[in-house]
User: What shape does this take?
Amino acid sequence: DTAVSQTPKYLVTQMGNDKSIKCEQNLGHDTMYWYKQDSKKFLKIMFSYNNKELIINETVPNRFSPKSPDKAHLNLHINSLELGDSAVYFCASSQVTGIMNTEAFFGQGTRLTVV
Amino acid sequence: DQQVKQNSPSLSVQEGRISILNCDYTNSMFDYFLWYKKYPAEGPTFLISISSIKDKNEDGRFTVFLNKSAKHLSLHIVPSQPGDSAVYFCAAADYNQGGKLIFGQGTELSVKP
Assistant: This one.
């Protein structure tokens, strides 16, 4: 009964393709995130959605488009994939109440390899 | 500009001894700090956190210390166990930034039997 689940776990695709990564959380949290871990192992936030509204967009190329159909889901769609997009992408969720936030729970990650 | 830094990429400790992982930050607006543990091919798992109004938080074998004047925090694990071998990430957050976490680059802990 995974709290934050993302699919697929591995994704190998050719340059120029369009792909999506799905994420779902069953924790009842109001905020979901996408983080990227690059080849140097840095974990950096890409997007954050609170109750289906985009609240953080960290200067990510517009080839990346997050979509939140409801507050339990945050999918990541990537157009025209480039070699540099190869990384591990983590979905996460937390409860953000303004003055006191809970810790973020992470999914298992999606290793994207662009060839 | 790296706002959260873990200057030791790796640490090796003998089983039963204390592990001390360090983290420095530059942004004085951070008011919540967390440690995550990560095994290969898995997502980061929350370990322990501390609010900026405290200087210490303890949970079993894990204790986090915060020195706000030095902008430094540390994670103590005692006694260390082989199962603690993993990459540990320090993270910081500003409550006004919608839950966004800024991560350090991680420290790989190896606990040898």
In short: Chain A has a mean pLDDT of 92.
